[in-house]
Specification:
The protein has 165 residues and is mainly beta. It is built from three helices and 13 strands, in the order H-E-E-E-E-E-E-E-E-E-E-E-E-E-H-H. The protein has one domain: Sandwich (Jelly Rolls), CATH 2.60.120. The strands form three sheets. The chain has a six-stranded antiparallel β-sheet with strand order 1-2-5-12-7-10. The longest helix is centred in the first third of the chain and has 7 residues. It is globular. The two termini are 24 Å apart.
Length: 165
């Protein structure tokens, strides 16, 4: 496992959802509240981007954002992103470099969808990038509460139980 190397090299810190991150880009351009959908309560940067690292012994817990988030695979093990749409539709998409076996290099999680992720190799790590537009603000981040999410989507109770804290 090369986790300590990447965490140190990229100056990453623990993320509240699990894993480690480092913001690498925050647009200087600002979108005023009047130019944003009503779900935003204040101005936002046009876009933001982070490095995000997960290890096989951890996971990114179910959470949702008010913005779309584009995931990009960089190195390490593939990971799976688990998504529950507002209507309850469930998808699981592998992000990685083995395209012939269903992995893809980029994946978009739409705004207001619950999502979580975990590394597919329990002994490995996954280094990805995540871009958010309009830009990320912790005011737009909601961590799932296990019982509430299971009540809303009982058909997905098993995966929700696995990927919430």
């Amino acid at each position: 496992m090369i986790k300590p190397h990447w965490i140190k090299t990229l100056e990453m810190t623990p993320h509240p959802e699990g894993g480690y991150y480092k913001e690498i880009y925050r647009s200087q351009d600002i979108i005023q509240t009047t130019g944003l959908p009503q779900r935003y309560s204040s101005p936002r940067n046009t876009s933001t981007s982070i490095y995000f690292l997960l290890t096989g012994d951890n996971f990114s817990a179910f959470h949702r954002l008010k913005s779309d988030e584009i995931w990009h695979f960089y190195t390490g093990s593939s990971l799976t992103i688990y998504v529950i749409a507002e209507d309850g539709t469930y998808t699981a998409q592998k992000l990685g470099s083995d395209y012939e076996n269903g992995e893809i290099f980029q994946f978009v999680v739409p705004a207001n969808h619950w999502f979580a992720s975990r590394c597919n190799d329990p002994e490995g790590f996954s280094l990805v990038g995540c871009m958010v537009a309009p830009g990320f603000d912790f005011a737009d981040f909601e961590m799932a509460e296990r019982e509430s999410l299971i009540k809303a989507f009982p058909q997905h109770g098993e995966i929700i139980s696995q990927l919430t804290r």
